[in-house]
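Narrative of activities, Objective 1.

The group set out to show that a structural description can be obtained from nothing but a protein's sequence at a throughput compatible with the screening campaign. Below is one input-output pair from the validation batch, recorded exactly as produced.
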Amino acid sequence: MERSPSAQAVPREVLRQVKLIELRTRGLVDTHFSGEYQSVFKGQGMEFAEVREYVPGDEYRTIDWNVSARMGHPYVKTYTEERELSVLFAVDLSGSAQFGTRGRFKAEVAAEIAAVVAMAAIKNNDRVGLVLFTDRIEQFVPPKKGRRHALRLIRDLLAFEPSARGTDLSVALDYIGRILRHRAIVFLISDFQDSNFEKSLKVVSRRHDLVAVTVGDPRERELPDVGYLELIDAETDQRIVLDSGNRFVREQFEHLATEDEARLRRLLRRLSVDQIEIQTDRSYVLPLINFFRARERKLAR
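Output recorded for this entry:
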């Protein structure tokens, strides 16, 4: 399954893009995301060590109430922090990911987001891995450490040419459930233009720390007023002609897109899956920062 273009086969333009992404993201990692990443994720990989008597200053949430009741005074659980975590990026490379109307395709934005988090993870001595998928598993790169490995993942994200164009989130999620034996952090990066994946999403979110990164483009929720438009589905080649000059058509188009977005938010919220919403016409920096800060507030409760 691990199928990667060799360094010799990768066009120079792609290698140049990898270098540019590394330079762009390095500053972001150093100034924002390395510390944010560590405060949110380091310490989540914890293994139970022992129970000891409570001493002033211990957190109340660590009290083992069963042992305390038996012993007649408070006892707390202690843990040892795992020295390293595994971070897996599951990235959608379906036909709809090759869409963008504001300077960048959704797939390009997805690659840069993965690069930022991967570099932060590597800086914290964690392992990073990659699953590329469409309606099938296109490639799997097992989690490893090191800057060179992280750059290899970015290169693959930019250079890999998928064999299919459809989307099947269940296939990707079920595969992740099989390959990850220990709890990991999973960033699922997709436009989520799919259905019937709730069961698989629930299974993975229970076993792993799953974060949904939804990448969209403004033109997917609003039509320009330019008369008749032929829209072509990037995954099925299905064609439809719409009269964008008709106000009702434009409003219905936006209404359906808004309903789809709201439905996904409700699903993720119900399964306690954190969501990072990204748009191709805006910087991804603020949504990422907001995600980390929201996580910090949640952990502090």
